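This protein record is not my work; I was only asked to verify it. Take the sequence as given and treat only the tokens as open to question. I have pasted the whole thing underneath without changing anything:
***
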Amino acid sequence: MGERTGARGGGVEERGQPTRGRGEWSGPDILDICSAAGSRHHYSRGVVTGIKDANNVIAKTEYNDPYDRPTRVTVGVGLTGSENAVTEMSYPTAFANESRVSKQLDATRWLAYKTTYDGFGRPLTANAAEDGNHASFANFTIFSKRVYDGLGRVKFATNPYRGSGGAATDGWTRTAYDLAGRVIDVATFSGGPDSPPPDYPATSGGNSLYTGSVVTTSSPVHL
């Protein structure tokens, strides 16, 4: 049997017995039966699985992941149409070093995103789809790319670009750092995603000079 108890600030806590093997709440859903705003937690994991706001709108989070990472968030549980929105997430595996996010746009369309990573878990490319499909089978057509220096800092980053077609948005941003890891130069360059700009200081953009507690920044030069 489950038990409800009062909590400080007018909130509500829940106590009960876990279901067999999963540690989930086995009593009545406290977010359905309470009239005040509150939250619901997984019995053994300690993570938030549901939140009810002051307008009685419930957001539910599911954790179908061995590392307790959220895999599905539903906002507006029990509501219909645009008041109900679903976001689904997947994470890197031994077979694909990428994560995907699908955000429900309406009853038939999704906003889909994919990020790929290097061996250190740093994002290499960020991709977006325009076909309205779920990320699990979407065709990704918009990309952006990052290149890192030896210390893991972003050295080059592209503008968002399409894999084919016009190149109106092609370009790069280069960032340079001093020995303390502070940004000293930011410059922008034209060029496609396969043509990164020259290393600093071959050319210079807007730069910052650090002298004690004074930082002097010059205007960037677009090359």
Summary: The chain is about 0% helix and 40% strand. Residues 92-141 form one domain. Residues 1-28 have pLDDT under 50 and may be disordered.
